[in-house]
Amino acid sequence: MTAVLFDFSGTLFRIESAESWLRSVLAERGTALPEPELAATARALEAAGALPGGAYPERLPAALAGVWEVRDESSALHRAAYTGLSRLVPLPDPALHDALYDRHMTPAAWAPYPDAVEVLGALRERGVKVGVVSNIGWDLRPVFRAHGLDPLVDAYVLSYEHGVRKPDARLFATACAALGVEPGRTLMVGDDRRADGGAAALGCRVHFVDHLPVAERPDGLRPVLDLVDHGGVAGRP
């Protein structure tokens, strides 16, 4: 393997909980909710799928189905999809829906998995190039910079910047071209079998990790080093 491509959310980083997300925005805006109401509202937002990087909607309204399907193809579509889901949940101030969306783009809303820096650093020491390939509607580079991972990444390929989303092989091809590597010597690491598994169509090898809270996955990325060293593959779409 001469390169490894990583997904972002659920692979290298994890978004904060829905309750932390809501609590932070309410505190920033000086809005108070009784604790039982705050907890119930956070659960409702999570069920609605309003937190990007969090759970998918339990029920997707027909009126949002179209924008949801293409949400990662532009910044405007991404915001429209997630604020549309958020607005399904009553909040004390309508401006909170956009404030919640803005919060999820901040470095404070994300935590790297415990072994992320270690694994990316070890790949750099081995001379293996690293790319980040993400279905996303905003620039995640500040998150990597704030958490110290940016110096370990050689290229970012983000769906909204190209108008193409995984599993479309063109996004993976763009990443391989940016790194100057052959797909057949590239490993894709992600948590979504459908989206990340699309790299296999290009000839990349694929490895999957579990999308778990940070505390529950302390070393889920370390097998990547063995796969790179031995040219193996632990997962297929």
From TrEMBL:
Keywords: Hydrolase
Pfam families: Hydrolase
Superkingdom: Bacteria
Xref: SUPFAM superfamilies: HAD-like (SSF56784)
A GO MF label: hydrolase activity
EC number: 3.1.3.-
Protein's name in the database: HAD family hydrolase
